[in-house]
Amino acid sequence: MRYIPSTMSRAPTFPVPPQLARGLLPRATTVLAVIARPGQESAELGALLYAFRRSGARVAVLSLTRGEASPLNATIERLETRRVWEMQVAVGLLGATALAIADYPDGGLAGRPAGELAELVGREVRRHMADLVMIIDPVAGDSDQAAVAGAARAAAVQAGVPAVMRMTLGTGSGRVITLGAEATVARAVQRSAAAAHASQAEALPGIEHDLSLLGDREMVRWLAPATG
Questions:
Q1: pLDDT tens digit string along 24-53?
Q2: Which one, of 195, 208, 213, lies nearest residue 39 by Cα?
Q3: How many domains does the chain have?
Q4: What's the pTM value of the predicted model, to 2 decimals?
Q5: Helix 79-94 × helix 183-195 angle, to 10°
Q6: Domain containing 34 — which CATH number?
Q7: CA 26 → CA 23, 129, 199, 223, distances in Å?
């Protein structure tokens, strides 16, 4: 299937919503989370996705690869098959109602045309009528994550919807938000979703440690407008 890059229009501005300014989750009807590979939806975005679902939003997830390049595999199965199944279980636990996994090679996204990736993301934005795109800060990630963040931002601008970037707490210029009264439940669900990625069990202690430090807090950056 060929993807034809769309012509980029002038980036719209999206004022910071009052909820986010007060340290609360922004309102959304449908959230599309865009990630590089299975597992990120749980280890990094899990609590936020669960919180959005509990607030009444529909949640859809798009992974651009199957995660087959991971050096970890606690099973005897091929990762490109096993990790897809694990992700289906994980997004179900988080309350997502839709999951799409593209067939790009894990570790090769940076070599794909940026417009091609943006067009793929844009198609998912339109398919779900998403009014918020969620991505992960690429600063601490790899080249795949940077390619995904750039493509998702471009697609959000083209669609005229805002994007929010999940950041590592204590880094950058993001806003700290709280998960509210259900923070304990949100973290428990996130841990269960992360554990569903059994092939990556060796990474679970590190994930558990990071989540224990976060408590009821997350840090996000409102991308308005999405430029640069």
A1: 899 999 999 999 999 999 999 999 999 999
A2: 195
A3: 1
A4: 0.91
A5: 160
A6: 3.40.50.10320
A7: 9, 17, 33, 13
